[in-house]
């Protein structure tokens, strides 16, 4: 693969991975407008975010076996077409119930991008380069929150919230063209893999029996669900409690995305001196400390808007190290079952994200405590799983040495 091809492939894989972030971040500034237009509360609008997370978590389990059985591109085309149709459904939704349902369907289609991108990384790059490639993908993903909410905020003010979904549909059409003309096929279809429920479950069980996968997929998944609590709670906290405008919220969200981008780029250098396992552990410990200070400060009333944004920035810095390294450690043991491993890993992450966002909505009390408390709970749980999983990994390594 030439350097130019390498760049194009990374760009397309990154774009596939940003389907979820764009679908989530772009409509966040529109929450108050959606609530007014559909005559519902912010908490009810937040449920359309929760339904999206549920759809991603469930859909990835479907696409994992499909991309192993039929190759990477056919399921990718099918899923993106479902996403495209559901996106038009969101644009024309006249009730919150319909919007929640269309968001669920939108996620079921769009999540194919996450599974296919991670499986293609395993297909197209050597094991030793996986963590670095995931760092580059995380960079592309991290740039999307700098663009999506700002674009969404201005689109909402200029054209109304329905325009956001029309923009997403246009982006999807361009993505389909790029996949068709420029993306390699990756690992070919494997006709020996059955799609019967028993065989599919067997493939998932093969992946789940690997302690390294289970430890880092669970610990990384729940730790990286902390930003989902932030995503669900920040529109209400910043726009309704601290009274920033939709455009200002977009810029704040963009600024906080730098907290993920900067450490993500530092990850390339850190991997020359430290292992991925060491970096994941250090980042989760760091976030536990910062999350504790964040909760204490909100509870004690120490922070104004600027102080809260600063603490959120410091907390989110850990995500740039957790996500790529946990993903690399989860995927490294697999080749034949890479699709199933990617599906399970992504499903865990989005299932935890759905729980985190749903918790923020359920605990809504017109303060920032539900948001920051859920963020802290996510990283504490991730740290506990990481510590417990280390002994299982060591025992497994000794038994198979």
Automatic annotation (TrEMBL):
<dbReference type="GO" id="GO:1990961">
    <property type="term" value="P:xenobiotic detoxification by transmembrane export across the plasma membrane"/>
</dbReference>
<dbReference type="InterPro" id="IPR036259">
    <property type="entry name" value="MFS_trans_sf"/>
</dbReference>
<feature type="transmembrane region" description="Helical">
    <location>
        <begin position="45"/>
        <end position="64"/>
    </location>
</feature>
<feature type="transmembrane region" description="Helical">
    <location>
        <begin position="133"/>
        <end position="155"/>
    </location>
</feature>
<keyword id="KW-0472">Membrane</keyword>
<feature type="transmembrane region" description="Helical">
    <location>
        <begin position="308"/>
        <end position="329"/>
    </location>
</feature>
<dbReference type="InterPro" id="IPR011701">
    <property type="entry name" value="MFS"/>
</dbReference>
<feature type="transmembrane region" description="Helical">
    <location>
        <begin position="369"/>
        <end position="389"/>
    </location>
</feature>
<keyword id="KW-0813">Transport</keyword>
<feature type="transmembrane region" description="Helical">
    <location>
        <begin position="161"/>
        <end position="183"/>
    </location>
</feature>
<protein>
    <submittedName>
        <fullName>DHA1 family bicyclomycin/chloramphenicol resistance-like MFS transporter</fullName>
    </submittedName>
</protein>
<feature type="transmembrane region" description="Helical">
    <location>
        <begin position="248"/>
        <end position="267"/>
    </location>
</feature>
<keyword id="KW-0812">Transmembrane</keyword>
<dbReference type="GO" id="GO:0015385">
    <property type="term" value="F:sodium:proton antiporter activity"/>
</dbReference>
<feature type="transmembrane region" description="Helical">
    <location>
        <begin position="76"/>
        <end position="96"/>
    </location>
</feature>
<dbReference type="InterPro" id="IPR004812">
    <property type="entry name" value="Efflux_drug-R_Bcr/CmlA"/>
</dbReference>
<feature type="domain" description="Major facilitator superfamily (MFS) profile">
    <location>
        <begin position="9"/>
        <end position="392"/>
    </location>
</feature>
<comment type="similarity">
    <text>Belongs to the major facilitator superfamily. Bcr/CmlA family.</text>
</comment>
<keyword id="KW-1133">Transmembrane helix</keyword>
<dbReference type="Pfam" id="PF07690">
    <property type="entry name" value="MFS_1"/>
</dbReference>
<feature type="transmembrane region" description="Helical">
    <location>
        <begin position="213"/>
        <end position="233"/>
    </location>
</feature>
<keyword id="KW-1003">Cell membrane</keyword>
<dbReference type="InterPro" id="IPR020846">
    <property type="entry name" value="MFS_dom"/>
</dbReference>
<dbReference type="GO" id="GO:0042910">
    <property type="term" value="F:xenobiotic transmembrane transporter activity"/>
</dbReference>
<feature type="transmembrane region" description="Helical">
    <location>
        <begin position="279"/>
        <end position="302"/>
    </location>
</feature>
<dbReference type="GO" id="GO:0005886">
    <property type="term" value="C:plasma membrane"/>
</dbReference>
């Amino acid at each position: 693969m030439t350097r130019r091809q390498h760049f194009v492939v990374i760009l397309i894989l990154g774009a596939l991975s940003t389907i979820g972030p764009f679908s989530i971040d772009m409509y966040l500034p529109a929450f108050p407008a959606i609530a007014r237009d559909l005559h519902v509360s912010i908490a009810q609008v937040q449920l359309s975010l929760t339904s999206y997370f549920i759809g991603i978590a469930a859909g990835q389990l479907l696409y994992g076996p499909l991309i192993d059985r039929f190759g990477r591109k056919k399921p990718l085309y099918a899923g993106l077409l479902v996403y495209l149709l559901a996106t038009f459904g969101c644009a024309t939704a006249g009730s919150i119930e319909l919007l929640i349902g269309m968001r669920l369907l939108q996620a079921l289609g769009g999540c194919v991008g996450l599974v296919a991108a991670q499986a293609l990384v395993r297909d197209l790059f050597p094991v030793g380069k996986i963590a670095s490639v995931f760092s580059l993908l995380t960079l592309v993903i991290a740039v999307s929150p700098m663009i999506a909410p700002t674009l969404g905020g201005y689109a909402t003010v200029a054209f109304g919230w329905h325009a956001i979904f029309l923009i997403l549909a246009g982006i999807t059409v361009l993505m389909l063209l790029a996949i068709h003309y420029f993306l390699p096929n990756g690992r070919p279809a494997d006709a020996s893999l059955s799609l019967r429920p028993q065989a599919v479950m067997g493939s998932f069980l093969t992946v789940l029996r690997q302690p390294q996968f289970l430890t880092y997929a669970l610990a990384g998944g729940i730790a990286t669900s902390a930003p989902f609590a932030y995503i669900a709670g920040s529109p209400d906290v910043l726009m309704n409690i601290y009274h920033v405008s939709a455009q200002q919220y977009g810029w704040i969200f963009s600024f906080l995305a730098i907290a993920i981008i900067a450490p993500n780029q530092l990850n390339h250098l850190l991997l020359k001196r430290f292992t991925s396992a060491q970096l994941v552990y250090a980042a989760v410990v760091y976030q536990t400390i910062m999350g504790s200070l964040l909760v204490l400060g909100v509870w004690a009333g120490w922070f104004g808007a600027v102080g809260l944004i600063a603490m959120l920035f410091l907390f989110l810095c850990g995500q740039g190290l957790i996500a790529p390294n946990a993903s690399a450690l989860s995927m490294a043991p697999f080749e034949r079952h890479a699709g199933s491993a990617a599906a399970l890993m992504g499903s865990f992450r989005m299932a935890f994200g759905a729980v985190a966002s749903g918790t923020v909505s359920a605990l809504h009390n017109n303060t920032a405590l539900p948001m920051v408390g859920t963020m802290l709970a996510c990283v504490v749980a991730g740290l506990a799983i990481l510590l417990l999983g280390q002994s299982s990994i060591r025992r497994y390594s000794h038994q198979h040495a």
